[in-house]
């Protein structure tokens, strides 16, 4: 039995209405956090969240996710510099009031977050023997995204905030972290204790984009 396998039992757990309500709360209160306290994250809690993330589904059971903890100040600075370049370029694409609003948004917690995690997809992995990828090779990347979401929920359940920084240059981050050539950047995560807790998403709160009234539209064919 692998270390990520659930312990043997007489049968599957029973999830009651109370649990389902709490689970809905977890999904509803997951936030993309940009405002972090600088105090450290408990290592045991971080490890638990990573272990739970590893229970995520993956195509062919390939488990292609590769987590890199970025602690070196120089490497962190290289990532922050990439963000600053990309953020300035993105801001210039928005005209007038939308551009002014963009400039006021806080879009990363790179300077404050105590933990930085770069998450890669190992596109050269032999695990899974290629099952499920012949027609949709992008399933490897989707598997990593599922793992990231599992980590995000686990972190939230343990009182941690996670921010996904997408305004970076993947090549620059990959070069700065000196990872294998076959590893493709999927996410750069900031992790730490949030400064504030609020039910509405950051971008709703600051007037960028409201939640869609019908979050999932089921199309019939």
Automatic annotation (TrEMBL):
Gene Ontology molecular function: 5,6-dimethylbenzimidazole synthase activity
EC number(s) stated in the UniProt entry for this protein: 1.13.11.79
Keywords for the protein's UniProt record, in alphabetical order: Oxidoreductase
Claim: Calcium is one of the keywords in the record: no
Database matches in Pfam families: Nitroreductase
Domain Nitroreductase intervals: 28-193
Source taxon at top rank: Bacteria
Class in the EC hierarchy, top level: oxidoreductase
InterPro entries per UniProt: BluB (IPR012825), Nitroreductase (IPR029479), Nitroreductase-like (IPR000415), Nitroreductase/BluB (IPR050627)
NCBIfam families: BluB (TIGR02476)
Protein name: 5,6-dimethylbenzimidazole synthase
Species the sequence originates in: Methylorubrum podarium
UniProt lineage: Bacteria, Pseudomonadati, Pseudomonadota, Alphaproteobacteria, Hyphomicrobiales
């Amino acid at each position: 039995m692998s270390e990520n396998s659930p312990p043997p039992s007489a049968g599957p757990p029973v999830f009651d209405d109370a649990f389902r309500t709490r689970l809905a709360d977890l999904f509803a209160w997951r936030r993309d956090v940009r405002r972090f306290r600088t105090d450290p994250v408990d290592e045991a809690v971080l490890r638990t969240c990573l272990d739970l993330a590893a229970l995520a589904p993956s195509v062919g059971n390939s488990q292609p996710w590769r987590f890199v903890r970025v602690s070196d100040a120089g490497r962190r600075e290289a990532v922050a510099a990439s963000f600053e370049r990309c953020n300035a370029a993105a801001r210039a694409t928005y005209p007038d009031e939308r551009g002014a609003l963009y400039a006021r948004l806080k879009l990363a917690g790179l300077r404050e977050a105590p933990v930085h995690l770069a998450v890669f997809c190992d596109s050269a992995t032999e695990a899974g023997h290629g099952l499920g990828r012949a027609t949709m090779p992008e399933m490897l990347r989707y598997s990593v995204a599922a793992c990231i979401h599992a980590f995000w929920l686990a972190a939230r359940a343990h009182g941690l905030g996670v921010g996904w920084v997408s305004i970076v240059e993947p090549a620059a981050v990959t070069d700065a972290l000196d990872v294998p050539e076959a590893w493709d950047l999927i996410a750069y995560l900031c992790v730490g204790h949030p400064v504030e807790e609020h039910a509405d998403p950051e971008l709703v709160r600051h007037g960028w984009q409201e939640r869609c009234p019908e979050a999932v539209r089921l199309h019939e064919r």
